[in-house]
Amino acid sequence: MTVLVTGGAGYIGSHVARLLIERGSKVVVADDLSTGLEARVTAVEHVQLDLASADAVQQLRSIIKTHSIESVIHLAARKKVGESVALPEWYYQQNIGGLANLLEAMKAEGVDRLVFSSSAATYGMPDVAACREDMICQPINPYGETKLVGEWLARAAARAWGLRVVNLRYFNVAGAGWPDLADTAVANLIPIAFAALKAGKAPVVFGSDYPTADGSCVRDYVHVHDLADAHLSALDYLERDDRKFDTFNVGTGAGSSVFEVLAEIKRVTGIAFEEVVEPRRAGDPPSLCADVSRINEELGWHAKQGLAEIVESAWSAIN
Ligand SMILES: NC(=O)c1ccc[n+]([C@@H]2O[C@H](COP(=O)([O-])OP(=O)(O)OC[C@H]3O[C@@H](n4cnc5c(N)ncnc54)[C@H](O)[C@@H]3O)[C@@H](O)[C@H]2O)c1
After folding, report:
1. Ligand 1 neighbourhood includes 12 CB (under 6 angstroms)
2. Does 143 participate in catalysis according to the annotation?
3. Would the CB of 79 count as within 6 Å of ligand 1?
4. Of the residues 19, 262, 306, 318, which has the maximum number of CB atoms within 10 A of its CB?
5. What's the pLDDT tens digit per position in 86-97?
6. Separation of 272 CA from ligand 1 center, angstroms?
7. Which of 124, 278, 302 is nearest to 206 (CA)?
């Protein structure tokens, strides 16, 4: 089976590509290398392509034909929340325009299997202990909106021409499956804390007065290797004709607070720092955790690694 992995030069996509190859699949990566790294795809067939560009449909059709692509894992997207607030048109053009081009090419070439990278950002500010996939989604920024609209677009294609789709709503992805595929963007708590420590500074906690057990925000951290493995389970699920659902949370089902993550970082790094507490940031939900019963039962997928493995692998990848 040959799988097209869009965004395969990115942090998560490169893990997905490597796991697929380990499983014996052939992989072709399409990526514009805007945030992705060429070093992550040196051993993989890859094409540099902006999926949202004017000639993307033609280029994608050519890739599908040349490589006899049978299924697509679509990770290519812009993902910076603040940037999406400042540049909403561009976010819709990139994330929705790119997906629309991809679907048009898939339809034209008769490729009907898609795994789509969605996000817990579709839930917005949920007032529940664990988000269920059947909850009403109320994203609070254009980034989260593009993920929800992407799910709708894929579902509409399923109704219109029989696309088989699985939307995976990732929670907080962290860790490294292989040291050379580490997350190099300093955008999430763990890489931000490591960058602060390497600069000799103390990590910052935004808000310690949330209605959580220790007052800091709680998130569901999922190891990137486990997440990549969920894509393989999703591809297998697409082969079944009795699929009950098209959308699945990917998390551990257990939350960790910012203070708990920082305590783990102290243990793993051996650096005894005193975190700095600052006021809350706008738009941070107090708690965002996954109900994972659907993916556990339907896809047979379970996260195998926890916070310790996440922090250990992320730290050893950059040292
Ligand atoms: N990292 C997380 O915690 C997280 C959480 C939820 C969802 N996601 C989603 O997972 C996917 C992968 O995220 P990541 O963390 O690996 O980010 P990343 O920035 O490392 O990867 C995204 C990849 O897509 C490529 N890309 C972006 N726009 C493109 C375009 N128009 N055409 C072609 N290539 C393009 C980039 O060059 C990059 O290689 C994204 O869709 C993101 O929204 C990530």
Report:
1. yes
2. yes
3. yes
4. 262
5. 999 999 999 999
6. 33
7. 278
Tell me the pLDDT tens digit for each residue of 172-206: 999 999 999 999 998 999 999 999 999 999 999 99
Q: Is 1's pLDDT higher than 90? A: no
At 68, list the tokens: 């006899």
Q: Alpha-carbon distance 75 to 94, whole Å?
A: 12
Catalytic hit among 11, 91, 123, 143: 143
| Ligand 1 atom 7 nearest Cα | 119
Contact yes or no for 6/102 (Cβ under 8 A): yes
| pTM of the predicted model over 0.85 | yes
Sequence-ordered list of residues with C-beta below 8 angstroms from that of 50, at least 6 positions apart, any chain: 32, 34, 56, 98
Domains and CATH numbers, the chain: 2-173+222-250 (3.40.50.720), 175-220+252-317 (3.90.25.10)
Q: Supply 128's token pair.
A: 């529940």
